[in-house]
Specification:
Oligomer: single chain
CATH superfamily: Transcriptional regulator MraZ domain
CATH class: Alpha Beta
Number of helices: 5
Low-confidence stretches: none
Number of strands: 9
Structural class: alpha+beta
Shape: globular
Mean pLDDT: 93
Strand content: 25-35%
Largest sheet: 7 strands, antiparallel
CATH topology: Chemotaxis protein chec
Radius of gyration: 16 Å
Distance between the termini: 37 Å
Length: 147
C-alpha cells in the first residue's frame, strides 16, 4: 500500500452539482498512485473523510475486526462509505446525503490529515477550532509547540 502524508489544505467551493475540485498538489499523487480511486464516508468528528482506496481498505478491515459492541461505529463508517473517483475535471462528487449530514453547502475546508482528508463546512470547522483553542493546550503539547 502506498504511504501518504497529506497536510493542510484550502477552502474550496462546492459546485452546483456537489463536486469539489481536488487541489493539484494532492490530485497528482492520488491519480498516479491509486488511479484517483477514493472512498468518502462520515467521520465521528462531524465532517466527512475522503480516503485513498488502499487506506480505506485497511481501515475497513480494522473495523471488521471490532467486537460487536462497536457495531454502531462500524455502521457509521462502512454504512455511509461511497466509492468516488477523481474525474477528468479533477473533481470528486460528494453524495447529497453525505453533504447534508456534514452541513456542506458552499465553502468546504479540504484538509489533509495524514493518510486521508477531512471535508468540513467552513463555519462548523471554525467553531470547533475555536472550542479547541478555548479549552487550552494539552499538557502533552505544552513543551513541544512554540508559542
Amino acid at each position: 500500500m502506498p504511504s501518504f502524508a497529506f497536510r493542510g489544505g484550502p477552502v474550496l467551493t462546492l459546485d452546483a452539482k456537489g463536486r469539489l475540485t481536488v487541489p493539484s498538489r494532492y490530485r497528482d499523487v492520488l491519480v498516479s498512485t491509486v488511479g484517483g480511486q477514493m472512498v468518502i464516508s462520515k467521520n465521528h468528528a462531524g465532517c466527512l473523510a475522503l480516503y485513498p482506496r488502499p487506506v480505506w481498505d485497511a481501515f475497513e478491515a480494522e473495523l471488521a475486526r471490532l467486537p460487536m459492541k462497536h457495531e454502531g461505529w462500524r455502521r457509521l463508517y462502512i454504512g455511509s462509505a461511497t466509492d468516488v473517483e477523481i474525474d477528468g475535471g479533477s473533481r470528486v462528487l460528494v453524495p447529497p446525503e453525505l453533504r447534508a449530514w456534514a452541513g456542506l453547502e458552499r465553502d468546504v475546508v479540504f484538509m489533509g490529515v495524514g493518510d486521508k482528508f477531512e471535508l468540513w463546512d467552513k463555519a462548523r470547522y471554525e467553531a470547533g477550532e475555536a472550542l479547541t483553542i478555548a479549552a487550552g493546550l494539552p499538557e502533552e503539547l505544552q513543551n513541544k509547540v512554540s508559542g
